[in-house]
Design brief:
With 297 residues, the protein is α/β, with parallel strands linked by helices. It has a single domain, classed as P-loop containing nucleotide triphosphate hydrolases (Rossmann fold), CATH 3.40.50. 46% of the residues lie in helices and 8% in strands. It has a 5-stranded parallel β-sheet with strand order 2-3-1-4-5. Strand 2, helix 2 and strand 3 form a beta-alpha-beta unit. The longest helix is centred in the last third of the chain and has 23 residues, at 271-293. The radius of gyration is 19 Å and the shape is globular.
Length: 297
């Protein structure tokens, strides 16, 4: 009986979009750079444009209502077939009397995201670019660059403390993956909050066309291709051509090994974030199975 209602139409929020724009509310450290680069290979084939405005902006955890309205208006004012990408939480366009776009995003294992972020901010290439643009910025001490993630967590260093329900952070690290879906309400801010996660789940279920994961690239691209064909038609055909170069996009091959006990310590503080992560993956798999059930793949 369950399979009688397992249809792509039931799980496709693309039909709810009220304009031909796509908003990629890009989570940090989830493989989004690879997806963005891949979309550049698809844009001529599928006749769409990628707006780079958001990619050049400094990241902000949340926006005030006026800034949300301005961002929504900017997306609305782009031509049909436009993709806007920014590290931003979900925005309710209807709240500002604007038509709703297609929403997509990616997620990643919460602890792996934090490990990736930790070494990303210590990357020499990234820092060289940053200090070239900001020559008067204070330099971090050498010990900070050399500090391992294992030592940071085990020593109780404030940079590596992930305390549930906290709002203020010693270091900005994007640990709230659910925030990108929950939105700009103050209830979305407490870290690992069960309320914030439930709000984020509701947004995913009701608003997002696809929330994929680069950990399951082929499944994600298959679902995007069928649920958002306007932008991802023929994605699974084109991807193998660029697969090798995309695999290495923004990858840190020198990232040291993180000990099992450290991962376990962290997971205990990311319980609700893991609940959200698994929810998104289950939804992705359901969308994929629905395609199989209908004989579409």
């Amino acid at each position: 009986m369950v399979f009688n209602v397992l249809t792509p139409q039931r799980y496709n929020n693309t039909a709810k979009a009220e304009m031909d724009r796509m908003f990629f509310t890009r989570c940090a450290k989830v493989g989004s750079e690879a997806l963005i680069e891949f979309m550049h290979h698809l844009k001529d084939l599928n006749s769409f444009q990628i707006d780079h405005t958001g990619l050049r902006k400094a990241s902000q955890r949340q926006l005030r209502p006026m800034a949300q309205a301005q961002t929504a208006a900017h997306i609305y004012n782009q031509g049909e077939g436009s993709v806007y990408v920014e590290h931003l939480p979900w925005i309710d366009f209807n709240q500002y009397n604007l038509p709703k776009p297609i929403y997509i995003n990616l997620v990643r294992d919460p602890v792996e995201r934090m490990i990736s972020w930790y070494y990303y901010v210590r990357n020499s290439y990234r820092n060289a670019i940053y200090f070239r643009k900001n020559p008067l910025a204070p330099l971090k001490p050498v010990a900070w660059f050399k500090k391992s993630f294992n030592d940071c967590v085990r020593s109780g260093d404030l940079e590596c403390q992930y305390i549930p329900m906290t709002v203020h952070d010693t270091e900005g690290n994007f640990k709230r993956q659910s925030l990108f879906f929950c939105g700009h309400h103050q209830d979305c801010l407490p870290f690992n909050s069960p309320l914030a996660v439930q709000m984020a789940k509701r947004r995913v279920d009701e608003e997002y066309a696809v929330v994929g994961t680069w950990e399951e690239t082929n499944i994600t691209l298959t679902v995007l291709e069928h649920y958002v064909p306007r932008y991802f038609a023929r994605a699974t055909i084109i991807y193998p051509i660029y697969q090798e170069s995309l695999k290495n996009r923004n990858r840190n091959n020198r990232k040291p090994r993180v000990a099992t006990d450290v991962r376990d310590m962290m997971r205990r503080n990311f319980t609700h974030e893991y609940d959200f992560y698994y929810f998104c993956k289950q939804r992705l798999y359901t969308q994929y199975i629905a395609l199989k059930h209908q004989g579409l793949i």
